[in-house]
Design brief:
The chain has helices at residues 49-61, 75-88, 96-101, 109-115, 125-128, 137-144, 147-189; strands at residues 3-10, 20-28, 40-43, 69-72, 105-107. It is of the alpha/beta class. It has a single domain (3-172), classed as 2-Layer Sandwich (Nucleotidyltransferase, domain 5), CATH 3.30.420.10. A 5-stranded mixed β-sheet has the order 3-2-1-4-5, sandwiched between helices.
């Protein structure tokens, strides 16, 4: 199984009308969540949306469902965007049933919702990390042609995400015995 940090930058939230600005991924150690290789950033302004997807899809689909296990924030959104945009640019898009039914991923957005007292509103990566920007800034930077600043944001976001992911990966195992005891206690009280 190969874990990869995965993130996208887009011109908006609707994959039917908005485009991919960048696709970034990085191989991770399964046990620690630490980086095993460099951050790869595919940039629309250096190629095209189609060109990025032509490079990325073979890596993403790999030799089977476990050859690229995405680790990210709101992975279903990213999967939908990749599929829709591949179709929009005339590529053979990954089968949604395969991607959503057989291709594993680990999404930390649900953890952010829990850390946000169960509220989806405000459960964003910038709320739980020290990002100097919000996701809404990237399309504005793209329209202005500030590609160097977009790259800085991408690198900062990857670093912030991976720091949070490693923290969750370290803290989560310790919660299992506590949770088991809590469930057992609540069953006894009933």
């Amino acid at each position: 199984m190969a874990e990869y940090y995965l993130d996208l930058e887009t011109t908006g939230l609707d994959p039917r009308t908005h485009r991919l600005i960048s696709i970034q991924y990085q191989r991770l150690d399964m046990r620690t969540g630490r980086q095993l290789g460099p951050l790869t950033v595919l940039k629309e302004w250096e190629s095209s949306e189609r060109g990025m997807l032509e490079l990325f899809l073979p890596i993403f689909m790999g030799s089977g469902p476990f050859s690229f296990v995405a680790i990210g924030f709101n992975v279903p959104f990213m999967y939908s965007f990749i599929i829709e945009r591949a179709m929009a640019v005339g590529l053979d898009a990954p089968d949604p049933l395969y991607v959503f039914g057989s291709k594993p991923y680990l999404d930390i957005k649900p953890f952010a919702v829990l850390m946000n007292n169960g509220s989806f509103k405000g459960a964003s990566l910038d709320r739980f990390t020290d990002l100097s920007f919000t996701g809404e800034m990237v399309p504005v930077l793209y329209e202005r042609g500030e590609n160097d600043r977009i790259e800085e944001c991408i690198k900062e976001k990857a670093s912030a995400f991976l720091s949070l992911y490693r923290h969750l990966k370290e803290a989560a195992p310790a919660m299992a015995p506590e949770r088991k005891a809590a469930v057992k206690q609540s069953v006894l009280e009933v």
